[in-house]
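REVIEWER CHECKLIST
Item 1: Sequence provided? yes
Item 2: Single chain? yes
Item 3: Sequence as submitted:
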Amino acid sequence: PFIYNKTSWGDSMKLIVKELEKLTSIEETLNLDALIDEASDLIELKDVKVSGTIERSYDEVVMNLTVDLDVVQKCARSLKPVTYPLVFDTEIIFSKDENKYDYILTDEIDFDQLIFAEILIEKEPFVYDEEAVEPIDESKGQGHPAFQTLKKDT
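Item 4: Structure as written out by the authors:
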């Protein structure tokens, strides 16, 4: 069984650590729309599928997950939407042992925030629309096309 709570302030998935089995399989589709505003270059995260295992011991939780989604991100030049698939594997360790952990083990884990943070790490830093204008090579003395009509003949 997969234990989580839907909070009163949204549909965020929270894992209650003490209620997790020693080994839990997970296969969930997440809606991370509420978190999109936290990343200025993202437009949408579609079909966020998370699968894998969660292992719990006395003082540690280890997640071995595969995340599969379609990212809609703003083009770095035109700000037009660019959609691309993103699939990655990740191991996330929650522990009280500072030599081991990615995150400190607490009684509750905000699964949505965790997966969103992993997506931010794994996504492309910049994407470009196929129709975006190529960058201007100022070394050729051309300058920006918008200013070509302002050139004075000498």
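Item 5: Key structural point noted by reviewer: Strands lie at 5-6, 13-16, 23-30, 42-57, 60-74, 81-95, 103-104, 108-110.
Item 6: Recommendation: ____
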